[in-house]
Design goal:
The chain starts with 10 loop residues before the first strand and ends in a 17-residue tail after the last strand. The protein has helices at about 15-20, 50-55, 65-70, and strands at about 10-15, 25-30, 40-45, 60-65, 85-90, 95-100, 105-110. The protein is globular and about 35 Å long. It contains 3 helices and 7 strands. About 15% of the residues lie in helices and about 30% in strands. Strand 2 and strand 3 (about 40-45) form a beta hairpin. The chain has one domain. It is an alpha+beta fold.
Length: about 130
């Protein structure tokens, strides 16, 4: 896998609820087949997104990775996870971090008790 931070103008797709400040980051998913070299495959969803909202492509916009990280600094710990990754952000007191909802395990916790298993390889992506 190639690090998203080393791609020129790498972008994520973000809900407009995140970009206009009406929602908070809650869930992210990395698509298996990005359509352009600068596309990291990540889609960022807000806590107030609904199925109807998510069904309309116009409700999402590309953001440069650095902008997304400014909005949600904890993204820096998980953006290099592999395609197909599906995570939920838990922002409760004493629980802040990224969780794998399928396995119900933490991937990264703000208190540093969990470190993600990220392997970055030079060259093409896996």
């Amino acid at each position: 896998m190639r690090s998203v931070f080393h791609q020129p103008e790498a972008v994520v797709l973000a809900s407009k609820h995140l970009t206009d400040g009406t929602g908070s980051l809650r869930w992210i998913y990395r698509e298996l087949a990005p359509t352009a070299p600068q596309d990291t495959g990540w889609i960022l969803f807000a806590d107030n997104d609904t199925d109807q909202w998510n069904a309309d492509f116009q409700n999402f916009m590309p953001l440069v990775v650095e902008t997304a990280v400014v909005m949600a600094p904890s993204l820096v710990h998980i953006l290099d996870l592999p395609y197909g990754t599906d995570l939920v952000f838990d922002n409760r007191p004493n629980t802040k971090g990224w969780w794998d909802p399928k396995r119900r395990v933490p991937v990264w916790l703000a208190d540093g008790t969990v470190t993600p298993n990220i392997q970055i390889m030079n060259g093409g992506s896996n």
